[in-house]
């Protein structure tokens, strides 16, 4: 089975865009009193990006069938 890169352009592009947005939204420097809330926020953002990426790959696999 040969994998053609052209078939993977859409999900790879969406994955890169989603994680770029997530990386841009993650905050690193925060005051001590909001550090826990910031950690939760960052975790939720990255988890949402991972979920969106997984959904795109799943839909793409179903469409390709």
Return the average pLDDT rounded to an integer. Answer: 78
Shape: elongated
Rg over alpha carbons: 16 Å
Summing up helix and strand content along with how strands pair, one would put the structural category as: mainly alpha
H-E string: HH
Low-confidence stretches: none
Overall number of domains: 1
In short:
The protein is built from 2 helices and no strands. It has 65 residues and is mainly α. It has one domain.
Layout of helices and strands, plus pairs?
Layout: H1 9-25, H2 35-64
Helix pairs in contact: 1-2
Task: Describe the fold and architecture.
α1 runs antiparallel to α2. The chain has one domain. By secondary structure, it is an all-alpha fold. The protein is built from 2 helices and no strands. The chain starts with 8 loop residues before the first helix and ends with a helix.
Could you name the key traits of this structure?
single chain; 65 residues; mainly alpha; 2 helices; 72% helix; elongated; transmembrane; membrane; transmembrane helix
